[in-house]
Amino acid sequence: MKSIGCLGLIACAAAAVxxxxxxxxxxxxxxxxxxxxxxxxxxxxxxxxxAQKLGIKFNEEETSAGMARVQAMVQAHxxxxxxxxxxxxxVLAACDSGILVRLDWxxxxxxxxxxxxxxxxxxxxxxxxxxxxxxxxxxxxxxxxTSVLALFDTKRWPGKRGMQKIAAxxxxxxxxxxxxxxxxxxKVLATPQGVDRAxxxxxxxxxxxxxxxxxxxxxxxxxxREVVMTTAWNGRIQNPIDHEHAPFKIVWDNExxxxxxxxxxxxxxxxxLAYQYLAYVxxxxxxxxxxxxxxxxxxxxxxxxxxxxxxLPKLPTAPDHMKAALPIDMEFWADYGQxxxxxxxxxxxx
Amino acid sequence: MLLxxxxxxxxxxSFCLPIAALLARAVYDPTMHDALPRTAxxxxxxxxxxxxxxxxxxxxxxxxxxxxxxxxLYNLAKDxxxxxxxxxxxVLRTARGLSPDRPLTRAELTALDPFWGDSQTWxxxxxxxxxxxxxxxxxxxxxRWTPAGSIGAVPPDQAIYRxxxxxxxxxxxxxxxxxxxxxxxxxxxxxxxSGPTAARLILLVLLPFWTSILVRTAAWTVLLQRSGILNELxxxxxxxxxxxxxxxTRAGLIIAMVHxxxxxxxxxxxxxxxTISPSQMRAAYSLGARPFAAFRRVYLxxxxxxxxxxxxxxxxxxxxxxxTPALVGGPADQLIANxxxxxxxxxxxxxxxxxxSFILLALTLGLFAxxxxxxxxxxxxxx
Lengths: 350, 383
What we know:
The complex is a heterodimer of chains A (350) and B (383). Chain A has 350 residues and is an alpha/beta fold.
């Protein structure tokens, strides 16, 4: 009798557990993002206020596998993420392969209100960030570098330099350092000779490079003095400067400007809520709020007036920083990315 | 038998089936077959190798139109790109420029983009169209189908996997050897000590064994980096003038891997040593054997099963290393698992990941079979 009672209790508990998500289903939104200081900033600027406003529960996943995760979920017909944050190049590729929802902009915001290229068929821009150079002022004391291209000058700045382990950005910088004018970079890179030229330039510093993969690594590389200088996403360097008084300095000339994007995987279990979240983030005053927590600029044109005064000079889009800036060409990377990444990985392995 | 049935079912469902399903991707890929049905039929009708005639081009044009309509164009382009680098942008650009009104001709398309007049292109399409393809498996060992229909080597600047398989096996063998040299005397010491000292030493071996690989790898980063504990110590002792580079080098990778693998080699050796009574060695001495002869003829044969088991365990585990090379090794120290992970997570080319996994599994099983044949699987003492 006792054991039957026990079984009954377990059955009740099991039923309760099974029933619980069903009852709570309308109230949750699951987001997968890249973690670190950036996700922390998103949480402060958007997740928490949005969840409070709607009285819902916000689930967070941290992953660096972005699109691979979405592809696995969609192919298995078991989608658990409602919204995912990704790079623009990935959005274009994934959109073509049909694993993302083609966005209905009438449910979000007017498409023309975004910066050029920030409102895509399958992805909405979240913020603008810069790929910049950073150094530790305790290490580089005399003759500070003035351009990202200092990466390629091992005579004046000897020692290891950190660079992201991807083809994008590095190939552009290599061509610029080899004398290609900024507005010609993608034209040259689209030719086989241009690609050879970029890799030949990278060859000259290959043995001096420490490769990083996660956005949190560059500040660590600088703090541990593992490198003399490193490429980085500007926010990941500004945060330790602002909050921990780290002796880091950002070099803006020849920065590359990119958007972070947000997408909805096909089969998202809470599609309406996902659209509401996108609409929330696209409101000018909300879009500008991220800049309070991490110095990434808004992608909605009307949001500029809401950006706090002291944040403006730290943004990658500040007029001073834009002098030799190169906006990344996402169509180029969607078309050529796979081959260039393959070549880059083969080059790395040799 | 019935009692182990649940375990078998669990293994089958959660281990064997998913692995088989993933490995099947290396040879089964219906994407191109589904996206190019008309081209496939037209190609069957014209069996000559090389660039086909207008009938195939017309069918190809219709297939591209259809693929553009139903969102399969990109997957088609990506798949063809896997077999033939640079194909992706040609497919997408051609499809964008197609006019739906009239059938495509060979002269027109090859004038628009000479890519379509190359026999290598059509060789790749011919090989990709069947749902079952050997292209990925061949690519995983630096081979490909040539336009003539035979198997040939890929261009030297794209041939990397044989070198990486060789590197993976060489590093695994090196780490195994070092753990054996370090572990054997330690195992002997542990087996011949008694009481609390032995228990304490065993705990020192087991403590890192229970710590996660990620944590231990991160700890090695702290120890090995330029401003790390090791360099600071050596600088402080004036043993070196400049910090030595250990992070992102082969040496650093091997140090970290040896540390992680040491218990795997040591414990089977230790457990086989424990079963040997010290009186056996004394008996050998009393019968006139010199210490080395006694060790070689009495002791070593009895611990060999443990040594073999420990080495095999370490060697096979090393073949799958991923985290440690990624964090401690440099670009030239990445092992095959890092490339598999890159294909899965970054390139989304799961066919290639499956093909590389298949080759790795086949090599490992082959090696295991040779090993088992040479030394006897029943003589191996795993625990």
